[in-house]
Inverse folding.
């Protein structure tokens, strides 16, 4: 395979990958769920757009554009009334769907609607879909798709590089040997889960030598478990561990001002019943945190100083090239406006039907 013939080229500005003006239409984290109480309203700015979020009496979260359509007062200055939000300035009131339901000086409110954004909660975070209609589910760990999970929100970070550059670190096979000094070879097989998700799995057979490899063979039947699932080119879920015990880490990253990467690290495990299940999960999440620190060591100083320029891809970089091409095919939006950065094929437009899911804020 001639990797230099791939669609990505450092001499041509990519549509999505490492482009500080574009991001993929998809689900992005806003804030941790625990940071928004019932009856609370907050201003947030993500992907260059000012928003307001609040949690109504029914515990569901609603997300609007930030400014009142009357005179432009910031709606975060207002207050939550039941499941609706009332503007502080002239007391216009909007329900969770953005419809104006009360203007104090009028007997009948005007027929107008705020720009609202699909919002849901999962893995302890509040997420917003950056388009009109969600096309895919909330990001999930493939291995735990049907499972309830215990989650620990590990840390928040800001990197001096684009989210795309942060993402490829998880499938950069060379750096496992050079930076982390792992005495094993990693060969990835990439398979698209859907238009917005792709999974890379390690398929390297375990050899008998040296001693370290012989030791780990006690815990693995075939290849060492190391899989990476990407969503929207900006969320990566890493799964690793022996056959009987897997840990999961989610790096949820979004484009920040100046082409930087802002993210949250989530640690996840399958929920186990009872006190001992709860206790064992605390141990699992603690071990996951240790694993996360190991992978972050050395990588942080690279992504804080790198000036990404992929001039000479090698055969070992094939997974990175596959990821770049996967990202380039997705629908991109403009920073700040959230308008489409390129048109979809005419044939695909009528197919934009709402993805069916519970879409719950539980």
């Amino acid at each position: 395979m001639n990797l230099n013939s791939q669609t990505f080229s450092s001499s041509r500005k990519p549509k999505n990958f490492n482009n500080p003006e574009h991001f993929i239409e998809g689900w992005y984290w806003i804030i941790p769920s625990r940071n928004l109480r019932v009856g609370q309203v907050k201003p947030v700015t993500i992907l260059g757009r000012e928003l307001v979020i609040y949690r109504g009496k029914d515990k569901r979260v609603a997300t609007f554009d930030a400014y009142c359509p009357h005179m432009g007062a910031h709606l975060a200055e207002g207050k939550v009334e039941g499941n609706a939000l009332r503007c502080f300035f002239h007391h216009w009131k909007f329900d969770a769907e953005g419809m104006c339901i009360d203007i104090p000086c009028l007997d009948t409110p005007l027929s107008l609607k705020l720009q609202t954004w699909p919002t849901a909660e999962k893995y302890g975070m509040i997420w917003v879909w950056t388009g009109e209609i969600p096309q895919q589910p909330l990001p999930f760990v493939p291995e735990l798709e049907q499972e309830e999970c215990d989650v620990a929100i590990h840390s928040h970070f800001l990197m001096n590089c684009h989210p795309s550059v942060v993402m490829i670190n998880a499938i950069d096979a060379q750096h496992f040997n050079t930076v982390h000094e792992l005495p094993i070879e990693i060969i990835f097989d990439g398979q698209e889960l859907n238009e917005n998700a792709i999974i890379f799995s390690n398929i390297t057979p375990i050899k008998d030598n040296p001693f370290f490899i012989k030791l780990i063979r006690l815990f693995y039947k075939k290849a060492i478990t190391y899989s990476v699932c990407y969503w929207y080119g900006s969320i990566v879920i890493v799964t690793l561990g022996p056959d009987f015990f897997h840990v999961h880490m989610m790096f949820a990253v979004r484009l920040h001002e100046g082409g930087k990467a802002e993210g949250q690290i989530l640690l996840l495990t399958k929920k186990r019943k009872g006190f001992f299940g709860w206790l064992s999960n605390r141990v699992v999440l603690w071990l996951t945190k240790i694993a996360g620190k190991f992978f972050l060591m050395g990588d942080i100083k690279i992504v804080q100083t790198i000036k990404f320029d992929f001039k000479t891809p090698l055969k070992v970089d094939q997974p990175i090239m596959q990821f770049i091409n996967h990202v380039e095919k997705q629908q991109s939006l403009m920073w700040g406006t959230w308008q489409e950065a390129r048109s979809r094929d005419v044939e695909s437009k009528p197919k934009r039907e709402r993805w069916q899911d519970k879409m719950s804020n539980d």
Observations:
- The first strand starts at residue 22 and ends at 24.
- The chain has two domains: 33-117, 142-334.
- Residues 1-10, 211-220, 343-352, 354-360 have pLDDT under 50 and may be disordered.
- The chain has six helices and 19 strands.
